[in-house]
Design a protein that fits this description.
Blueprint: E1 3-8, E2 13-20, E3 23-31, H1 33-37, H2 44-66, E4 75-81, H3 85-102, E5 106-110, H4 111-117, E6 129-134, E7 139-144, E8 151-155, H5 161-171, H6 179-186, H7 210-225, H8 232-258, E9 262-266, H9 273-283, E10 289-291, H10 303-314
Parallel strand pairs: 1-4, 4-5, 6-9, 9-10
Antiparallel strand pairs: 1-2, 2-3, 6-7, 7-8
Bound molecules: 5'-O-[(R)-(carboxyoxy)(hydroxy)phosphoryl]adenosine (KG4).
Length: 339
């Protein structure tokens, strides 16, 4: 049984977790959201500085709660990418230092693999599967024929869906991050505004969110320039129906084409109540199982990094100590540790 301490610092959460075999002993998350809220998005320089301030405290708290010591760890794991360069650097330096100090292997984990494997805390992954990875930085459909094998079938060509939610929320005067406020308002609205839903081009599962974002912004400005008020709840509903339909229709088409056993949701946007309901409803009686992550696992955390690391530990897939973060690391290239 392996004891693994994992660190996540790719964006605006500093997180540390300790996993012992299948038991998650601790998972500490220090979120910077309040600091970034006033800028309406994550400020990379501020984020990396806060990681430097928080990492020591998070490490101490996570190891304290686990009841184990750093010396009890069999390996130290870290998110190597993708993410913000300065932020990733803090986690990678901390993990390397621990690894060197305690003479234990270092494990480099891909952030999106973490989001997918978070689901192992609630159920079994059944292959072949389709992972729908939707967050503030990603919108990807990832096909997995077996453990730790990834093929990106479709990705966003411009904005990620979470980014689109955040921009639309800003133009509607809703707080950052915009996903949850839009989700909540949409429940009280009606689909009254006509917004474009880009059709899926034959042979591709790629997404595009910039057209939808621009359409909402232009429509809001047009209504306001007429001296009228936007019905925020109706706009949220119209936007959400469209944004989620793109994910659901692409995911179902890809899942059927690839004849998968399971669809697995992951990433911050997988907390969306309509996405969860709609994908389950549309797949009822399809023979395709839907695995939904617990809400605590949809946002960035280190427990999910520890989960991937436990597989890599079993595979004895360790990273050299001179490894550098890779902000643009592709999930298919997770074995490639050089830049
Ligand atoms: O995975 P995540 O915590 O961070 C990264 O992007 O790495 O995802 C954050 C994103 C934000 O854009 C936020 O607005 C979105 O997830 N989000 C939601 C919901 N909750 C969070 N989007 C739609 N509906 C939600 N309920």
């Amino acid at each position: 049984m392996s004891n693994i301490l994992a660190i996540e610092s790719s964006c605006d959460e500093t997180a540390v977790a300790v996993l012992s075999g299948d038991r998650l002993l601790s998972s500490v998350i220090s979120s910077q959201i309040d600091m970034h809220r006033k800028y309406g998005g994550v400020m990379p320089e501020i984020a990396s500085r806060l990681h430097v301030e928080n990492i020591g405290v998070c490490l101490k708290e996570a190891i304290g709660k686990s009841g184990l010591s750093f010396g009890d760890m069999n390996a130290f794991a870290v998110t190597r990418g993708p993410g913000l360069a300065g932020c990733l650097h803090v986690g990678v330096q901390a993990a390397k230092t621990l690894s060197m100090l305690y003479g234990k292997p270092l494990i480099a984990v891909h952030h999106l693999a973490g989001h997918i494997y978070a689901n192992e805390y609630v159920g079994e992954l059944k292959f072949p599967l389709l992972a729908v990875v939707v967050s503030g930085g990603n919108s990807e459909l990832v096909y997995m024929p077996r453990h730790m094998e990834f093929e990106v079938l479709g990705a966003t060509r411009d904005d990620a869906v979470g980014e689109c939610y955040d921009k639309v929320a800003r133009v509607l005067g809703l707080p950052y991050p915009g996903g949850l406020p839009i989700d909540q308002k949409a429940k009280f609205g009606r689909h009254t505004y006509d917004l474009p839903l880009p059709l899926r081009a034959k042979g591709t599962y790629d997404f595009s969110y910039s057209g939808l974002k621009t359409a909402v912004i232009n429509l809001v400005h047009k209504i306001e320039s007429r001296g009228e008020k936007v019905n925020v709840e109706d706009m949220c509903r119209s936007f959400q129906d469209t944004a989620i339909e793109m994910i659901v229709s692409h995911a179902i088409a890809a899942a059927k084409d690839k004849d998968v056993r399971q669809i697995v949701l992951s990433g911050g946007v997988s907390a969306n109540s309509y996405l969860r309901l709609e994908i389950e409803r549309r797949l009822l009686d399809s023979g395709i199982e839907v695995l939904l992550p617990p809400l605590w696992c949809t946002t960035d955390n280190a427990a999910m990094i520890a989960k991937v690391a436990s597989h890599l530990y079993d595979m004895k897939f360790f990273a050299p100590l001179d490894i550098a973060p890779d902000p643009n690391w592709k999930i298919e290239d997770w074995r490639k540790l050089s830049l």
